[in-house]
Amino acid sequence: MSNISNNNQHKVIVINGDHFFDLPGFYEEVSKVFMKDTDWKVGTLDGFNDILYGGYGVFDNKEEVQIIWKNSLKSQQDLGVEATRMFYESKIIQGKPFNVELIYKKLEELLVGSGQTLFDILIEIIQCHENNITLILE
């Protein structure tokens, strides 16, 4: 089954949570389904946000798109607190160009239960494009 289909109103793109278990795997999955037949690969949160504007890859700027995230509960667990903690800790170790003070704050919020997980961040990125993108979690 293809990860992209058209119906009369909009394109449907499927992200399958069974295809990955970590953030690099998520980037590989979205590169495959959003950037089909291109040489460009998603490798950062900013890069993921960029492809959602359209204009390159599988949909055009402002084209109506429906994203179906299959097995999203698995992704929510895979990209949860532990994965997010490791993500922030790697940024802190790397230092520049990252704002280490801000990352420490985000890590602290995460550990006390008030911060966003990677899954939450990815959902928020998609929702920022609500003018033309609809997200369905399955």
Write up this protein.
This protein is α/β, with parallel strands linked by helices. The chain is built from 6 helices and 4 strands. It has a 4-stranded mixed beta sheet with strand order 1-2-3-4, covered by helices on one side. Helix 4 (81-94) runs antiparallel to helix 5 (100-111). The longest helix has 14 residues, at 81-94. The radius of gyration is 15 Å and the shape is globular. The mean pLDDT is 92.
Topology of helices and strands:
Elements: E1 4-6, E2 11-16, H1 23-34, H2 45-51, E3 65-70, H3 72-78, H4 81-94, H5 100-111, H6 118-127, E4 133-137
Parallel strand pairs: 2-3, 3-4
Antiparallel strand pairs: 1-2
Strand order of the largest sheet: 1-2-3-4
Q: How large is the count of helical segments?
A: 6
Structural class: alpha/beta
Instruction: Kindly estimate the percentage of residues that lie in beta strands according to DSSP.
Output: 5-15%
> Are there runs of 5+ residues with pLDDT below 50, and where?
none
Listing every helix as H and every strand as E from the N terminus to the C terminus, the arrangement reads EEHHEHHHHE
Average per-residue pLDDT, rounded, comes to 92
Global geometry = globular
C-alpha Rg, in Å? 15 Å
- Care to count the β-strands? 4
Specify the helix fraction band: 40-55%
Q: How many strands, what sense, and barrel or not for the largest sheet? A: 4 strands, mixed
**How many angstroms separate the termini?**
17 Å
